[in-house]
Amino acid sequence: MVEELEFLLIKPDGVRRGLVGEIIRRLEAKGLRITRLKMLQLTRECAEKLYDVHRGKEFYEKLVEFMTSGPVVAVLVEGDGAVEVVRTMIGPTDGRRAPPGTIRGDFSTSILENVVHAADSEERARYEAEIAFDPGCDAYDYDL
Ligand code: CMP
In this predicted structure, what is the pLDDT of residue 44? Predict the structure, then answer.
């Protein structure tokens, strides 16, 4: 048994389409423990940090624009083999190719707007969670 921590981000399309509850339900039903949860609107600077590995790729600008286009939900989960379990549950990047039963396979027909992001290692999960849970990364105006 290898207890792991994994970071997941429900993207602006997932929030806009009302899929937050469904995604969290799947994680909990699988047996993963949700240990932190936060809705935020990513600043451009933090979206760039989050996707530092993709800087320079042809889709990078579109990706940063999309990720800052609306609120996202940051989720920290823990469980046995959590990184592999979550990545299997979300499916491959391209929603058109992701198999039914996976989150992207069930809810996306896009390679960009693919509902969720999940870190590809525990080290990366810690790096990404530090960004998403940093109050300075939230551009949302909370004045009600
Ligand atoms: P994600 O798992 O968050 O990691 C990087 C993101 O970049 C990916 O999901 C997609 O949202 C986006 N992405 C990856 N490849 C492409 C592509 N070829 N065209 C547009 N967006 C992409």
Answer: 98
DSSP 6-68: EEEEE-HHHHHTT-HHHHHHHHHHHTPEEEEEEEE-B-HHHHHHHTGGGTTSTTHHHHHHHHT
Q: Whole-model pTM?
A: 0.97
Catalytic (active site) residue 117: yes
Q: Catalogue all structural domains in the chain, each as residue range(s) with its CATH number.
A: 3-81+120-137 (3.30.70.141)
Question: Which among 93, 108, 131 is the best mutation to test ligand 1's pocket, defined by most ligand atoms within 8 Å of the CB?
Answer: 93
Residue 1 has a pLDDT of 73
Distance (Å) from CA 111 to ligand 1 centroid: 6
